[in-house]
Amino acid sequence: MQIANATIRAVNALAARWAGEVRGDGNSVFSAAGVWPLLAFLADGAEGAAREELAGALGVPAEQAAGAARELLAGMDAMRGLDSALGLWTKRTLELREAWEAGLPAGARGVLTGDARADGAALDAWAAKRTGGLVERMPIVVTDDTELVLASALALRTRWLRPFREEGLLESLQWPEGDVLSLHRASAVLDRIGVADTPHGHVTELKVLGDNALDVHLLLGEEHMTPGRVLGAGLDLLARRYPVLPGSRLPYGEVGPGLSVRRTRSATPEPPTLEVTTPAFHITADHDLLERRELFGLTTAAGTGSPRGAFPGITGTLPLTIASAAQSAMARFGATGFEAGAMTAIDMAVGGPPQLRWVVTTVRARFDRPFGFLALHRHSRLVLAAGWVADPERLAEHPEDYDDPEDPEDF
Questions:
Q1: 136 with 128: CB under 8 angstroms?
Q2: Neighbouring-strand partners of residue 90
Q3: pLDDT in tens, 268-285
Q4: Cα–Cα distance, 216 to 219 (Å, whole number)
Q5: Residue ranges of domains in the chain
Q6: pTM greater than 0.70 (yes/no)
Q7: pLDDT, tens only, 228-238
Q8: CATH says 5-156+286-350 is which class?
Q9: Residue 145, exposed/middle/buried by CB under 10 A (0-12, 13-18, 19+)?
Q10: What is the overall mean pLDDT for the chain?
Q11: C-alpha radius of gyration, the chain, whole number
């Protein structure tokens, strides 16, 4: 199934905004494609400010979000080398609105037993299975207060069309310890690499192609550029916002970050060659999405105290709020291929007083003074007896004060 261009642009725009917050003091890996469909289904069931914020983070109108999310999940599921799944777990007592539940992928729903330890183990097993072991645990902790968990799993694997060679350790001023594994390969296809002039500096882009149409683009910016600007530039290049000068058209000399073009003499005619050296890497990262709640449109959704909650379109019985939202991700780049996995989960709990859906009338009566009565036939309304109670029967102080029920005078 083909994914609409508007949805792709929206997911990538979220990735660009998330990239803008990546710091340069450590590794990071994240998946906007893992978060986006969850936010879309939340938007479908939200109202008020929460709905507006989620739509803003998604980049699509809230009324279109669920349809776009289904299309996105189906499109990803059809991609070779990519496994994706969406799961929903609720307590047995939580009633979902039929319209909202019907919008989820078939077979997504599971049940929370109420035993937090057992539920946590079951969700961890789902995460490990759906990512093929790339991510072994759910990024949230289920508690006794958890009413609903919405999660997505992504796992992608590809093998390079042209593998690298492991060539010992990489010599680098950036990694002076000398323990970085060096990968090297040579190719006659010069246009796998190029240089772009972006507003924040030049960026070198290398396209490493996989055998199942899953590729990896390596991006190297000028030294003064932040991670967010380098990653943002890469996303801009995908959107063709800036031209890339391909390797076959590069001039001689130092032509881009980490990139040079040289001419040397040879005894035999040789075609132009692209030689690439890069480190292998294996990185992991955990993200608390609520630490960036504005980025993901979760400000109101994670803080509402409204009697209706932020998500009356999901359930009308409890005022749900976001208790936690997180993602665990990993990526491994090696000589023969690449793999990455991401688990994203949102935990929802009761965020306010139970919703009062009905008007209930309570009548209390106290017959503590003289009163009358009528005895009648219900259907004909015939009165069979009438009376007045001015002095009701007293409770005897001692058992012997009761009359003998067998005494005929009592009848």
A1: yes
A2: 111, 148
A3: 778 888 999 898 998 999
A4: 10
A5: 5-156+286-350, 189-272, 371-410
A6: yes
A7: 989 999 999 98
A8: alpha beta
A9: exposed
A10: 85
A11: 34
